[in-house]
Amino acid sequence: MPEIINSHQDLLSEIEATQTEPGKAAFWWLGQHTFVVKAGQIVLYIDPFFAAWESRNTPPLLNFEEGKLANYTLVTHTHGDHLCPETLSAMKDASPNCHFICPKSEVHRLVDEAGIPESRITSMRGDDVFTDETLKVTAIPAKHETFDFTEENGYPFLGYVIEINGVKIYHAGDTIFYDGMLARLQKCTPLDVAFLPINGRSAEQWSRNLMGNMTYQEAVEVAGELKVGLAVPTHYDMFIGNQEDPQKFVNYLKFRYPNTPAWVGGLGKQVLFG
Hints:
By secondary structure, the protein is an alpha/beta fold.
């Protein structure tokens, strides 16, 4: 299990106190695919998951009522460790000015299960863009074993390229590597940081209803081919039977793309980038 560096009020205090100049930002990894990013004065939560499931191998670093400071919360897809209605409902109240971004297919869950007003939600279909005075978000279709595209809702699994304060962040969501993925992402380069799942996929995982993601080798190819500023392997720590050793990612990246740096570290540790 990754070491816990910072959590609860200490973590919130550090996020609040962090200042980043233009062209710089900071992130904190909270386990699985949950990240907090601060760029300038804007705080983003991506796939917040604070529910204390018994199956968790890593504990929540924040309680429900501690989902504070958020200006934006991005949700990548429907699975409970990414779209947690209890977490989102609490964040709606703890961060009353927070705006939520999610796949169009999941708007009904944010409204019906988390009680978030539609006026605070932006839905995305994939291959579309949301822009306001603060940030730009490009929705990159994700293939979580399958695309499951529909004409009504578009792609239900998404990654996001977030442009804010002069930096570009790619959160891949849950996805395998697929034809056309790099072409979509190359339109958004240069990327300052990429958060990439590495837990892989197998028939045995399928038998337990676990939809797979990139292998660590595939994630390395994405990071290296895109020449990302910092490659961050994720989604490898939380659930027994759905884990991977991130050092394999680091070692393979060093061999294949020695000029692309990687970060692997503890939960709740501040990482500056840009």
